[in-house]
Design brief:
By secondary structure, this protein is an alpha+beta fold. The chain has 2 domains: 67 residues, Glutaredoxin (3-Layer(aba) Sandwich); 104 residues, Glutathione S-transferase Yfyf (Class Pi), Chain A, domain 2 (Up-down Bundle), CATH 1.20.1050.10. The protein contains 7 helices and 4 strands, in the order βαβαββααααα. Helix 1 packs antiparallel against helix 6 and helix 5 packs across helix 7. The longest helix has 31 residues. 37% of the residues are buried.
Length: 191
């Protein structure tokens, strides 16, 4: 397998929690993306996983779900699996577009209007509040065990401070972050 990757991307980090073969691409200089990724991902985004047989998968949650198939990290029960997918859709539509984008702007010093930053922080706060409610009284997001739902949301939540988000008002999230980081095989985002 070959993973096209960027070490600072939370979406790529999700995949690295389950895979170890990396090919680093620059997150800012995308000039070589058409040549490298054009036939693999029409959106020219990382991560892209190339399987040994040449087939390829794009989009971080699709990749981690594929890699987790048949393991304890992806439930077999249809309802429980749908709950996992629900959290992954939430991550992609509510969480990542706000928290990850704010982090990206800060991390790479990208100029954006104050109004845009305010919208990101309002949306990110709303997402963190929803995640907090979803974790209250729970060890993990779905069922009683660590799953790809946790991996999906951990990726950008644990570095939310790099986007200017304060996690101190979210005790359930902070406890969950500690539990996820204590999982066997856990690696830091920069690994």
């Amino acid at each position: 397998m070959l993973l096209y990757n960027n070490s600072r991307s939370g979406n790529c980090y999700k995949v690295r929690l389950l895979a170890a073969l990396l090919e680093e691409l620059d997150v800012l200089d995308r000039s070589n993306r058409p040549e490298v990724l054009g036939d693999l991902n029409p959106a020219l985004r990382v991560p892209v996983l190339v399987l040994d047989d040449g087939r390829h998968l794009a989009e971080s949650n699709a990749i981690i779900d594929y890699l987790a198939e048949g393991t304890q990290y992806l439930p077999q029960d249809p309802y429980t699996r749908a709950q996992v997918l629900s959290w992954q859709f939430f991550e992609q539509y509510e969480h990542e577009p706000n928290i990850a984008v704010a982090r990206f702007l800060n991390l790479f010093g990208v100029d954006a209007s104050e109004e845009f930053h305010k919208r990101l922080h309002a949306g990110g706060t709303k997402a963190l509040e929803a995640l907090e409610r979803g974790l209250e009284g729970r060890e993990f997001l779905v069922g009683d065990s660590y799953s790809v739902a946790d991996i999906s949301l951990y990726a950008y939540t644990h570095v939310a401070d790099e986007g200017g988000f304060d996690l101190s008002p979210y005790p359930a999230i902070r406890s969950w972050l500690t539990r996820v980081a204590a999982q066997p095989g856990h690696i830091p985002i920069t690994a």
